[in-house]
Design a protein that fits this description.
With about 260 residues, the protein is of the alpha/beta class. It is about 35% helix and about 25% strand. The protein has an eight-stranded parallel β-barrel with strand order 1-4-5-6-7-10-11-12, surrounded by seven helices. Strand 4, helix 2 and strand 5 form a beta-alpha-beta unit.
């Protein structure tokens, strides 16, 4: 059995760590490098960084920030935001990103997934999906819609159908972010995570809603996720990464432990 992972998400704007609730009311909460080193030293399994305004501002991601972080942490480092081409992906790889995370540009031009997967490998090509509940809408059989630009743009794509398409095109992993749960600390969307995990054959990272250790346990078991992404609960000092991993290990979840 493969170990489950605890992944931290860094939303970055203008080089600063920020946090929002349901993708609105975004506030600056700290320095990126200091937090990255702190979580790495405390046993974090993986770091995902999103340049959250790169797509909406129609600009490239900040390579200097990526280089700085990559030089100080030695765990898988995934980067997303404003990636529109193989050249963008290659630049990030040279800057130190192990994984390339695509979202908006892939929805607009799905073949981008295949192009990046061919260039850097499926294991390094991550499809991130932002999902909104749309119950009762016949256009979305799963009850979930893919949205982009921080939830401002409705794409008309069913979330499960898009997950399967992303895998077919070459994504080696999916980050499934529930906008309804994002930043609420009320728990992950178990139904959404399980639906995606059952629909694809690649690892799934659950994102959005983590507020207490039990939430991670629930999504890694009931939700079928391979990894649980955390943000607010560690960014605001409520829990430490090592504390969460010890809790999961104690409940029988196989973890990579730094005893």
């Amino acid at each position: 059995m493969l170990s489950k992972r605890v992944v931290s998400c860094f939303d970055v704007r203008d080089g600063k760590l920020v946090k929002s609730v349901k993708f609105v009311d975004t506030k600056e909460i700290g320095e990126v490098l200091g937090r990255a080193k702190e979580y790495y030293d405390d046993g974090l399994d993986e770091l995902v960084m999103y340049d959250i305004t790169a797509s909406s501002d129609h600009r490239n991601i900040m390579l200097d920030t990526v280089e700085t972080i990559a030089s100080e942490i030695f765990i898988p480092f995934s980067v997303g935001g404003g990636i529109r081409s193989v050249e963008d992906a290659t630049s990030l790889r040279w800057a130190g990103a192990e994984k390339i995370n695509v979202n908006t540009a892939a929805v607009e031009r799905p073949e981008l997934i295949a192009e990046i997967s061919h260039a850097v490998g499926a294991q390094s090509t991550i499809l991130s999906i932002d999902v909104l509940r749309v119950p009762g809408d016949p256009r979305f059989p799963s009850g979930f819609e893919i949205v982009t630009h921080g939830g401002r743009n409705h794409t008309g794509r069913d979330a499960i159908a898009w997950s399967r398409e992303g895998e077919r095109l070459g994504a080696g992993e999916l980050v499934v972010n529930s906008i309804d749960a994002d930043g609420t600390k009320d728990g992950y969307d178990i139904e959404l995570t399980r639906a995606v995990a059952e629909a694809v054959g690649v690892p799934v990272i659950a994102s959005g809603g983590a507020g207490k250790p039990e939430h991670l346990y629930d999504v890694l078991t009931e939700g079928g996720a391979d990894a649980a992404l955390i943000a607010s609960m560690v960014h605001y000092g409520e829990y430490k990464v090592s504390e969460l991993k010890r809790y999961l290990d104690g409940r029988g979840i196989k973890m990579r432990m730094n005893y």
